[in-house]
Specification:
- The complex is a heterodimer.
- Chain A is an alpha/beta fold.
- Chain A contains 13 helices and 17 strands.
- In chain A, strands 1, 4, 5, 6, 7, 8, 11, 12 and 15 form a 9-stranded mixed sheet that branches.
- In chain A, a hairpin with a 6-residue loop joins strand 13 and strand 14.
- The longest helix of chain A has 25 residues.
- Chain A is globular and about 80 Å long.
- In chain B, helix 2 packs across helix 6.
- In chain B, strands 2, 3, 4, 6, 8, 9 and 11 form a 7-stranded antiparallel sheet that branches.
- Chain B is an alpha+beta fold.
- Classes of the chains: A alpha/beta, B alpha+beta.
- At the A-B interface, helix 3, helix 8 and helix 9 of A face helix 15, helix 28, helix 31, helix 32 and helix 35 of B.
């Protein structure tokens, strides 16, 4: 804050609490302030050092302080990016064997198809060095292939939902039905803020180069469900105000705003004296925070001080606000400033047809920036305490949706096996976890036998959505069975009554 | 039972009961209040009603279960239960350490001991026993009591050693009452009347006036909209628009007309099953259709049938029963006596409606109906009867003869085909654009076969708003010559015959609207006809008829020939004769009237309704709630713990509705009066308004709750009377000042030791700002409006194919309507509303959170509506002659409904000079600041002066006092 403005403030925080003459003890006041919502979105102002999360959290020493979740909305094709199936070339255009499909339900987009013809990937794979056994990776991810030494690639993800809305809602909130809090909201609620001047949970939306229709992503996915609404993700926008209504109107300069806020504070202070309601003190503090946000957010999104070297790393698209590259760079700036949970959405992965034509544009949007983010976090020493997660809501089918030709194919939704990766934040670097059958259709054990994983028990080698959620929370020092919220007489948690921490993924 | 244990009051106190109960109640153990919560919290998860899972076959939820094994009534020392919960050895202690549940506190164990000692009596959970009218307690300070509510409240306060606060001053009280009943501040006229009225009962008369304003129904309806998750879109995936706002308008009408609440419930749950339901009763069934729907590509109908039905059951149980039955979807409820088969028993009432589980992504998925309001309905009736009297003057024989001479045979047609559907941004663009299939374009385009017959309606060709499609076919005639085509379309139409454009009609209409008669030159042999159908909104369709008279007319004639004495048959030929027959004064009058009526009908919105299938779908338990995992079959039934269908009631939704509002349902009245209490006091008597089950909170004052519930029924389920009783109580009228003593003794005001005090809801805050600015437009009902909204919110979050992808803001008076009419896109609701804790409306919400965040401050400071309201308010103040001090006082009256205090006047006078100086020195800044919003700029006011006042107005709208019900 400018010294001039600081001097103009007619009431400091100490004064505020010092002048509270109604016998409301400071302790009671801070407690009520916290209840009133200071904690979550922006942290407590009553005491900068105050613990703003729940008492008793973290449950144990966290490996990761924050999360950057790169959400590839629509369902990226594991078969064309991560899950290399060379034998499929021999089965081109053959029908998917029933021994493999095993009655698995199919969306109504392809359930009417007369045939399920095998579509081997048109893309070349190479084995990249991950300082371990190596990992097969598609030619579409040349930059990512250089950082696989940091990645923990999970090829045996599975989910129960088969359409976008339920599947995305499921992975974001732990339930395919609307109404539950998102993962970021749970984390905000449990752990609170690390920087009172920025939101705790930030959501970024990325431009997509392809002009294909995109799957929608909407506020429910970063909402709070039944948790108080202050824990919801704050969308940081690349056009207009970065945070809604952040900018003062034209014709109102900062010193006038300060003067006006001083009047509001003075009037509110009189109300506090007259009515003795601690909520009023909280309101006064929130207005001060709002004033600070008006400076800290523009500073956050101002990339002009980033070096040329950094832009080389992320690619020239990072100069353009709203690109996935610019968002990754912003994410790095946010973790430096203590934002706890960042989610970057990139849409357009739902390639039911012309996958061969459209997938390269999708990967081009994200590949370099993903690799840059890992490299950048590593070189700035942040990767160890930052968990990076990459993936979509489900995978894609091995059989072609619509016409299969030598040159092209489409793929329908596939929930039974797909690939995601994590990096940093205490997960094992340079490993590949889980296997699928020769068709990339089912998860198999180390002997190649098909596994039918159940959500009720932990199945080594398979990672259910709830397992992923449990593992992410675990890295943040949260026991997923203990971060609960009672609503309608029931204790709810992100992982419902399921989920297991997948220890094999962890250092 | 008298207490054998002298430590009990202390135990109760430690557990926090004393503040809520006290008095003689505290000396008695009440199983339901004191013991059941302990068992429920620590034991029922494994030893509760979830029979299948009861660990070690031990159940502690019944006397029989508990006394069979671990409790010996009257003998605590012989009861194994106490040994286990009190065991020092963690391996022996219950609940087990690995269960995730906490061990019992010593005070809880003492309570259990005392309870077992006194006989270990079980009683049903309080909320499952129907309420009976309690005795009105006697109190010391009888003069304070204005109505029986106060006796119940004061009894508690006196037990707790607290005194009520003095009555709030009249201005504060009037503001409080107006805000809580109408969601708006009182008008100046209302305040003047109140101040003039010095006779006793002035405040009560003021309240009655508020209850009689249309704003009351709107405000009350807004809470109901949260509960039923009202939205203007489907809510999932594409999230296209759907039309159900007539339901919202009906709810408003119902509250304003004070429709008895039992009827209000019955019509919504089962209006379609009433005998000869009225239009209003049918519109009300929109309640059943309010669930989220989808038609996402690939979606499986059976899956969504289950999801939709879950949504209906869960909402109904929360809204009407205050119960969370959702747990029983997968297994027997662990805490409440709701078995899994009970859940599917309720499910069976809702899974047999006619609507398709997938919504077709259209605005009006069937069943739907026109929804005239009562005024419109009456006017329609008048118009119809006028037409009928004209009709009856026609001799049916004459009409039939004319028909005989004019009916032409329909030629044969074949090879009907249809093009892909093309979307556009607007109806205009859709009408003007062309595609390869259009005659004259390079073509040939993409055609697929279509089943079609001349003269028949072909509905749902497009199924998209602002989109178009081409239909073509071959018509064969034996000889050449002019022919008359009769074209019906929904909406616009362009028509080509043998490559030549012969007709173009840009119109919004339905297939039943009067048809276009087009004369065209046909060849002998094959003729190719191409129609472009352009849909604006919702339903679409096409009808290509031949000759001035078509199939309908021929049928009318045939019917008349068959039964010439039948009045209906006579009217049918009369109607054709007047519509299409020879010109006459009578025919002209009839056609004019019919056309007028058609226009009037076209302006009447359609709405989604519920209709029952003739044969119910069979219902099965869905294992783990999975739609494709069928368990045993289940018949419709009410959970036995909650009562039974009334004798003679049909076992369908109507029977369910009858039970919901019957005396045997212990919950519905308590749940509703509790929510009304929450509206006025900020917190319910049962704080967990959504959960009256055993895990929910014990009522802070059960006698009061039961009094209100029974009184509600005694007063004919009148919601207005209920509101009036609450708002005229002395309890409500107290000052909302919080003293240190009360903050300590009654921090959440559960004892009502002071007046209500809580932040106002999002909608009220915006409406108040517009009201203060003189901008609020109080037009009731209708389609949702779209106010200012930051660019890109819809576009950035939705599929480009969605009908709600582009946000097109409204302009003019629409923009200033009450917030409850904002268009509600459920995947991207109005951002300022969400910032102030409005729910998304994708699930049932009966209690909003009340947060206090910096994002709220930013919205109030910078959102254009609030800035514009400040600007308009500044101009409003300045237009009235007067001094700065006079204007400042008016400013306080408009925003806070009170005069300014001297220190406030001093503060703001100083600021005013500062802003004046600043904007006088920088007139450009003033002009920029005043540019906000679309309402007309004030003329004849100095910009600097106006800007300075605008900032003061904005300051007042940002005060806690403005935002707080107090």
């Amino acid at each position: 804050m400018e010294p001039l403005l600081e001097a103009e403030m007619n009431m400091t925080r100490r004064e505020l609490f010092g002048r509270t003459t109604l016998g409301v003890g400071t302790a009671a006041l801070s407690r009520l302030l916290a209840l009133g919502g200071m904690g979550a979105v922006l942290g407590s102002t009553a005491d900068a050092q105050a613990q703003t999360g729940l008492r008793g959290l973290p449950h144990f020493a966290p490996k990761a302080k924050r999360v950057i979740y790169l959400f590839m909305s629509g369902g990226p094709s594991q078969l064309d990016l991560w899950d290399y199936k060379p034998k499929l070339r021999e089965h081109f255009n053959e029908d998917l064997p029933e021994l493999i499909r095993r009655g698995q339900r199919i969306t109504t987009m392809t359930s009417g198809q007369a045939r399920f013809p095998i579509a081997p990937s048109k893309f070349k794979f190479e084995k990249a060095d991950n300082k371990g056994d190596g990992v097969w990776i598609s030619e579409l991810l040349p930059h990512t292939s250089k950082v696989v030494g940091e990645l923990c690639v999970m090829r045996s993800m599975w989910t129960e939902a088969i359409n976008h809305d339920p599947a995305t809602t499921f992975i974001q909130t732990g339930s395919p039905l609307p109404g539950r809090p998102s993962m970021g909201a749970w984390v905000s609620y449990g752990l609170g803020s690390m920087n009172e001047n920025l939101p705790t949970y930030v959501v970024l939306h990325s431009k997509v180069s392809s002009d294909k229709p995109n799957q929608p992503v909407y506020p429910r996915l970063w909402g709070t469900g039944f948790l108080p609404s202050e824990y919801q993700g704050v969308s940081l926008r690349s056009t207009g105000d970065p945070v809604l209504y952040l900018r003062d109107p034209e014709g109102l300069d900062r010193s006038t705003r300060r003067a006006m806020l001083n009047d509001v504070a003075a009037l509110n202070h009189q109300s506090l004296q007259a009515f003795g309601d601690p909520e009023i003190a909280a309101r006064i503090a929130q207005y001060e925070l709002a004033f600070k946000l008006q400076a800290s957010v523009p500073d956050l999104v101002d990339l002009t001080k980033e070096s040329a070297e950094t832009f080389d790393l992320y690619g020239h698209e990072a100069h353009e606000p709203g690109t996935f590259a610019a968002n990754c760079l912003l994410a790095r700036r946010m973790v430096q400033r203590g934002v706890r949970f960042i989610q970057i959405f990139h849409r357009g992965w739902d390639l039911h047809s012309n996958l061969v034509g459209d997938l390269p544009s999708q990967t081009k949007d994200v590949d370099q920036a993903c690799a840059a983010l890992i490299t950048d976090l590593k070189r700035t020493g942040l990767l160890d305490e930052t968990l990076v997660v990459w993936g979509g809501e489900f995978g894609r089918t091995v059989y072609s949706q619509g016409t299969l030709s030598q040159d092209n194919y489409g793929r329908d939704h596939h929930p039974r096996a797909f690939t995601m990766w994590m990096a940093g934040g205490g997960v094992k670097p340079g490993i590949v976890y889980g296997n699928t059958d020769d068709y990339g259709y089912n998860i198999v054990d180390s002997d190649g036998q098909i596994i039918d994983p159940s959500v009720d028990t932990f199945t080594p080698g398979a990672v259910h959505i709830h397992d992923l959620q449990a593992t992410i929370l675990n890295q943040l020092g949260i026991d997923h069975t203990k971060l609960i919220y009672r609503y309608q007489g029931r204790d709810f948690r992100l992982t419902d009554v399921h989920g297991h921490v997948v220890r094999d993924l962890l250092k | 039972m008298k207490l054998p244990n002298p430590l009990l009051p202390i135990c109760l106190a430690i557990l926090g009961y004393s503040s809520l109960t006290g008095g003689d109640q505290a000396t008695e153990i009440n199983f339901s209040r004191d013991i059941r919560p302990i068992l429920s919290e620590h034991c029922f998860k494994c030893h509760g009603p979830d029979v299948a899972a009861a660990a070690g076959n031990l159940r502690l939820d019944s006397f029989a279960g508990a006394t069979a094994r671990v409790i010996v009534p009257g003998k605590p020392n012989a009861s194994i239960l106490l040994n286990r919960v009190g065991a020092v050895d963690p391996a022996m202690r219950m609940p087990p350490s690995n269960s995730g549940m906490k061990p019992l506190k010593p005070a809880q164990i003492s309570l259990l001991r005392a309870w077992i000692g006194s006989g270990a009596k079980y009683s049903a959970h309080w909320a499952f026993i129907p309420p009976t009218a309690p005795k009105i307690p006697s109190v010391k300070d009888k003069s304070w009591v204005k109505n029986p509510i106060d006796a119940f409240v004061l009894a508690k306060l006196e037990q707790g050693g607290l005194k009520p606060e003095p009555q709030a001053d009249l201005d504060t009280l009037a503001l409080r009452a107006a805000q809580t009943l109408t969601g708006l501040p009182p008008t100046r006229a209302q305040m003047a009347t109140l101040h003039r009225d010095t006779k006793p009962g002035a405040y009560e008369r003021f309240v009655d006036e508020l209850l009689a304003t249309p704003a009351y129904g709107e405000h009350e309806a807004r809470y109901w909209m949260d509960a039923v998750r009202y939205g203007d879109t489907h809510g999932l995936q594409l999230d296209n628009e759907r039309t159900i706002y007539p339901y919202r308008d009906w709810v408003i009408r119902a509250f304003n007309a004070d429709l008895p609440f039992d009827q209000f419930v019955k019509w919504q749950v089962a209006g379609d099953l009433l005998t000869n339901p009225t239009t209003e009763q049918m519109i009300a069934t929109g309640y059943v259709r309010m669930n989220l729907t989808t038609n996402e590509g690939g979606a499986i109908a059976e899956e969504f049938l289950a999801r939709n039905t879950f949504d209906r059951v869960d909402t109904t149980s929360t809204v009407m029963l205050g119960l969370t039955v959702g747990c029983a979807k997968c297994h027997d409820h662990k805490y409440d006596p709701i078995r899994q088969r009970d859940y599917y028993g309720l499910y069976a009432y809702f899974n047999s409606t006619q609507d398709d589980p997938l919504d077709g992504n259209i605005a009006l998925p069937q069943p739907v109906m026109p929804a005239p309001n009562p005024d419109q309905e009456q006017r329609l009736r008048r118009m119809r009867s006028q037409e009928l009297s004209l009709l009856r003057t026609v001799d049916p024989r004459e009409a039939a003869e004319w028909l005989e001479a004019n009916v032409t045979p329909v030629p044969t047609s074949r090879d009907w085909q249809i093009s892909p559907v093309y979307s556009a941004k607007s109806f205009d663009e859709a009408f003007d654009q062309s595609a390869p299939e259009e005659p004259g374009k390079p073509g040939p385009g993409h055609w697929t076969p279509l089943q079609y017959e001349l003269g028949k309606d072909a509905p749902n060709l497009i199924r998209k708003d602002n989109a178009y499609v081409y239909v073509k076919g071959t018509i064969s005639l034996s000889r050449s010559g002019p022919q008359i085509l009769r074209i019906g379309s929904d909406d616009g139409i362009r028509l080509w015959l043998n490559g030549k454009l012969i007709h173009s009609h840009k119109i919004g209409r339905g297939l039943d609207a009067p048809k276009d008669l087009v004369t065209a030159e046909f060849k002998a042999g094959d003729n190719e006809i191409v129609a472009k159908v352009v849909n604006g909104i919702s339903i679409d369709g096409l009808n290509i008829g031949f000759g001035p008279l078509g199939v309908t007319e021929a049928k009318a004639l045939a019917r008349y020939r068959k039964s010439p004495d039948d009045l209906g048959a006579q009217d049918a030929v009369r109607e054709v004769f007047l519509n299409l027959g020879p010109d006459s004064a009578k025919a002209r009058a009839y056609r004019a009237s019919a056309q007028q009526r058609a226009q009037f009908e076209a302006a009447i919105p359609m709405t989604l309704i519920a209709k029952e299938m003739t044969k119910p779908r069979p219902t099965f338990i869905l294992k783990r709630g999975q739609y494709d995992q069928l368990g045993p079959s289940v018949v419709r039934h009410i959970p036995s713990a909650l009562g039974n269908l009334p004798a003679g009631a049909a076992n369908n939704r109507l029977g369910l509705a009858n039970w919901l509002v019957s005396r045997s349902n212990p919950l519905v009245t308590r749940v509703f009066v509790n929510r009304i209490w929450q509206q006025h006091f900020g917190v319910g008597i049962v704080k967990t308004v959504e959960d009256f089950g055993s895990q929910g909170e014990w009522p802070a004052n059960q006698a009061l709750l039961d009094y209100l519930a029974t009184q509600f029924v005694a007063n004919g389920w009148s919601v207005k009377k209920l509101n009036r009783m609450l708002v005229t109580s002395a309890a409500f009228r107290q000052s909302s000042r919080i003293t240190a003593v009360k903050l300590a003794k009654d921090p959440e005001n559960r004892l009502i030791s002071r007046g209500p005090r809580f932040r106002l809801e999002a909608e009220v805050i915006r409406d108040k700002a517009l009201f203060a600015g003189g901008l609020l437009v109080q037009r009731s009902g209708g389609h949702g409006f779209k106010p200012y909204q930051p660019d890109g919110l819809w576009e950035g979050s939705s599929d480009p194919a969605s009908s709600t992808h582009f946000y097109v803001q409204d302009h003019g008076p629409e923009t200033y309507r009450r917030s409850m009419y904002m268009f509600w896109k459920r995947t991207s609701p109005p951002p300022a509303m969400i910032t102030f804790d409005a729910p998304l409306r994708d699930t049932c919400i009966v209690r909003r959170s009340t947060t206090n965040t910096p994002l709220q401050a930013l919205a109030l400071l910078n959102e254009p509506t609030f800035l514009e309201a400040s600007r308009a308010m500044g101009a409003r103040l300045l237009r009235a002659p007067g001094s700065d001090q006079g204007h400042l006082n008016a400013l306080f009256e408009l925003t806070l409904n009170r005069r300014a205090r001297p220190d406030e006047l001093a503060l703001l006078t100083k600021s005013l000079s500062r802003y004046r100086l600043e904007y006088t020195q920088n007139p450009a800044a003033a002009t920029k600041l005043l540019a906000v919003g679309e309402s007309a700029a004030a003329t004849n006011l100095a910009p600097a002066e106006q800007a300075a006042w605008m900032i003061l107005c904005s300051s007042l709208m940002n005060t806690d006092e403005f935002l707080t019900q107090h």
